[in-house]
Each structure stands twice: as C-alpha cells, then as structure tokens.
Amino acid sequence: MALNLDTYLGVHADALKLQSKRMEVIADNLANSDTPGYKARDIDFRAAMASAGGADAPVKLATTNPGHLGTDPTTEANANLKYRVPLAPALDGNTVDAQQEQAAFADNTVRYQATLTFLSSRFRSLMTAITGQ
Amino acid sequence: MSSFKIFDIVGSGLSAQSVRLNTVASNLANADSVSGDPNTVYKARHPVFQAVQAAVGQSANATDRASGATVRVTGIVQSNAAPTERYDPGNPLADEHGNVYAPNVNVVEEMTDMISASRAYQDNVEVLNTSKDLMLATLKLGS
C-alpha cells in the first residue's frame, strides 16, 4: 500500500499553514495598534479549517490546472479574513484592542505548537516504521 | 518567502514606534526651550502612522495581498496649538513687552504617549520573539 504523505499528515499540515497565516494577521493588528482608521482583522479559523478540508468539509471542485482556485488553506484563510467587532473603538477609528490581540496571539501560539507536536509525532512514527526499530 | 513576512510587519511596527519615541524625546527635551518670538518657538512634533496594504499586482499570490498591512510613518506634523506666553522680563530672550514664549508641548500628554509607544514596542518585540521561536521549531520539525 502506497503511503500518501498528505493524507498521512492529516489535517495538521493545513492547520499549520492556517495558524502561521493567522499569526501574520495578528502581528498586523499589533503593528498597527496606533494607526488611525486601521480596523483589526482575524481569521475565522473554524470556517477556514472546515473549507480547507476539515471533518465537515464541503464538496470541493477538482483542480486540474494550476490556474484553478484550489483548496489551499491560505486561500481559504483569505476568504475567512474578517474584521473584528470592536469592544471600544478609539476616536481615531482604530479598532485594535492590544490585550485582545495579545490573547489571540498567545492562543494561536499554543495551537501552533500543538500542531507542531502532532506533526513531529507523525514523523517519528514514520521513522520508526522505516527503520524498524 | 511569505512565512518571513511576519518579520517585515513586526519590523515596521518597531520602527514606527521608535520614531514615535524619538518625537516624544524631542518634545520633552525642548519643553522648556523658550523663545522671544511666537513664530520661531519649538512646536510639538507628532508622527503620522498609516497602514500599508500590499498593492494588488505587487505580489503574485493572493495570500500576500490580503494580509500584510505593515505600518509606515508618512510624516511628522507640528502641532498648531498656540505657544504659552509667559511674562518673564528678566529673561534675555524676552521681547519688548517682557514676554517669552514656551513651546506648546504638553508634558503630561507626552509622558502618556511615551508609555503607549513603549507598550506597543514591547508588544511587537514579543510577537517577534514568539514567531522566531515558532519558526525555529518548525525548521526542526521531524528531527
């Protein structure tokens, strides 16, 4: 039986891409925490993960040409990039809440590390199988 | 490479906040630089921040376009508030009415601005450290 590395890694490869994308979005928010008119954004992780091929993934279009819009999780992330609902928007139109973003960043960091742990354990089992020890 | 874009974002945040700290330092340093002419007296300076969205077509893939709002300092504006007039005839800089003009620097405002800038700078440093750690861990994946 041929081993497909994509299916072997399961949802974790997609999750890692999404989480690194989310890290970028939150870093954006923190870098612009004092920019007038900047609106904080975040990724709807559940929706992005679902459409990137999670458990309840909808039926996908076949991608037979590199130009086709595929199921790349980062593309899904862009579709699920939403503006945050501000709790207390500033007078200058900025909606970044530094505390909220820090919490989101910490949350994302832990998830990223969890995904890394899952992935490396998959690799370890693979190495065990290959070396047979 | 898109995974290193986070460093550009954080770097722009750091440099913007350090420009802000510089203006605060300049304003505080000159808070007492009086002048005999209200037009030449030091005026408080404030940086103007702007979010820079990656332009469409500049980057080939949609991922880089949609996110990636770095921050840029578009300029430094001088405050238009009137300088404080002070009667101080003993001052060698005083005009014919014995008045000197103190800069329109609000020291309390500058101090809070400094705290805000320093917190924002720390936020960015924290993001930088964390993402660096995560990236190093990703590089070591599978070993």
Secondary structure: elements and pairs:
The complex is a heterodimer of chains A (133) and B (143).
Chain A: H1 5-9, H2 11-31, E1 41-43, H3 45-51, H4 73-79, E2 81-83, H5 98-131
Helix pairs in contact in A: 2-5, 3-4
Chain B: H1 5-29, E1 45-53, H2 62-66, E2 69-78, E3 84-87, E4 99-102, H3 107-139
Antiparallel strand pairs in B: 1-2, 3-4
Helix pairs in contact in B: 1-3
- Give Rg of chain B in angstroms: 22 Å
Low-pLDDT runs of 5+ residues of chain A are: none
Radius of gyration of chain A: 18 Å
Q: What is the oligomeric state here?
A: heterodimer
The description of the largest β-sheet of chain B is: 2 strands, antiparallel
Q: What helical percentage do the residues of chain B reach?
A: 40-55%
Taken from the alpha-carbon principal axes, the silhouette of chain B is: elongated
Quantity of strands of chain B, as a count:
4
Indicate the percent of residues in helices of chain A. Answer: 55-70%
Give the helix/strand class of chain A: mainly alpha
CA-CA gap between termini of chain A: 20 Å
Report a brief summary of the structure.
Chain A has 133 residues and is mostly helical. Chain A has 5 helices and 2 strands; from the N terminus they run H-H-E-H-H-E-H.
Description of the structure:
The complex is a heterodimer of chains A (133) and B (143). By secondary structure, chain A is mainly alpha-helical. Helix content of chain A is 56%, strand content 5%. Chain A is built from five helices and two strands, in the order ααβααβα. Chain A is elongated. The model of chain A has no long low-confidence stretch (mean pLDDT 83). The longest helix of chain B has 33 residues, at 107-139. In chain B, strands 1-2 form a two-stranded antiparallel sheet. Chain B has a two-stranded antiparallel ribbon with strand order 3-4. By secondary structure, chain B is of the alpha+beta class. Residues 56-60 of chain B have low confidence and may be disordered. In chain B, helix 1 (5-29) packs antiparallel against helix 3. At the A-B interface, helix 2, helix 4 and helix 5 of A face helix 1, strand 1, helix 2, strand 2 and helix 3 of B.
